[in-house]
């Protein structure tokens, strides 16, 4: 038995292969006809339109990157501010304690031997409170003798005084405080004015 007799599909496969080889040639011919039908002016317009779209997309990408950079920077600043000023309310509460300790010292007679131990204890407590606040960048504002600054001082009254320059702080009712340079509480002051 010959190989052709053994496999009758061989001729069918060969004819199919020959037919497949012809089809791509026909497709190429059809595409050549389509390219010849296209107007060069239309191609130029399409290229320009695509270039415009590419330009717009590049611009949009740059804007998106810039916006993401700004968002990241704002978030970092917010975190930094939260770290710096997270203690602001706590500091405000501690200032009341410092004020009370200073008032207690001012009301005690320095000459009274019976109060000497209590006075020393209050002084040490006040000093440790002030040192603790300084470690956290809390600074006192005690502007006696300085020019009045409305950013950091609150004028309680103005008193005529010919011996002092006008707008000078004559007396401090209550010290002011800042946290990392930000005002927590203004200093309450008496300001001199021209007579």
TrEMBL record:
* Localization terms from the record: Cytoplasm
**InterPro entries xref list:** GrpE, GrpE_CC, GrpE_head
The keyword Metal-binding appears for this protein = no
Q: Which GO BP terms, alphabetically?
A: protein folding
MF (Gene Ontology): adenyl-nucleotide exchange factor activity; protein homodimerization activity; protein-folding chaperone binding; unfolded protein binding
Q: Mind telling me which GO cellular component terms the entry cites?
A: cytosol
Per the record, which residues fall in region Disordered? 1-39
For this UniProt record, the keywords arranged alphabetically read as follows: Chaperone, Cytoplasm, Stress response
Q: Which PANTHER family match?
A: GRPE PROTEIN, GRPE PROTEIN HOMOLOG, MITOCHONDRIAL
Per its database record, what is this protein's job?
Answer: Participates actively in the response to hyperosmotic and heat shock by preventing the aggregation of stress-denatured proteins, in association with DnaK and GrpE. It is the nucleotide exchange factor for DnaK and may function as a thermosensor. Unfolded proteins bind initially to DnaJ; upon interaction with the DnaJ-bound protein, DnaK hydrolyzes its bound ATP, resulting in the formation of a stable complex. GrpE releases ADP from DnaK; ATP binding to DnaK triggers the release of the substrate protein, thus completing the reaction cycle.
UniProt subunit comment: Homodimer.
Describe the family membership recorded for this protein in Swiss-Prot or TrEMBL: Belongs to the GrpE family.
Protein's name according to its UniProt entry: Protein GrpE
Species the sequence originates in: Pseudoteredinibacter isoporae
Give the encoding gene's name: grpE
């Amino acid at each position: 038995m010959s190989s052709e007799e053994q496999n009758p599909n061989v001729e069918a496969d060969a004819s199919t292969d020959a037919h497949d080889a012809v089809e791509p040639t026909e497709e190429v011919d059809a595409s050549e006809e389509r390219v010849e039908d296209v107007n060069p002016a239309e191609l130029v317009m399409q290229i320009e339109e695509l270039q415009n779209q590419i330009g717009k997309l590049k611009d949009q990408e740059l804007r998106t990157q810039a916006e993401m950079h700004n968002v990241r920077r704002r978030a970092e600043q917010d975190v930094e501010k939260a770290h710096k000023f997270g203690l602001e309310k706590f500091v405000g509460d501690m200032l009341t304690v410092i004020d009370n300790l200073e008032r207690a010292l001012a009301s005690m007679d320095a000459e009274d031997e019976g109060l000497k131990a209590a006075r020393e204890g209050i002084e040490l407590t006040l000093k440790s409170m002030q040192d603790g606040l300084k470690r956290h960048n809390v600074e006192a504002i005690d502007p006696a003798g300085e020019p009045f600054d409305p950013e950091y001082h609150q004028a309680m009254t103005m008193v005529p005084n010919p011996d002092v320059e006008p707008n000078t702080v004559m007396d401090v009712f209550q010290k002011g405080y800042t946290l990392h340079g930000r005002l927590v509480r203004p200093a309450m002051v008496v300001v001199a004015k021209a007579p």
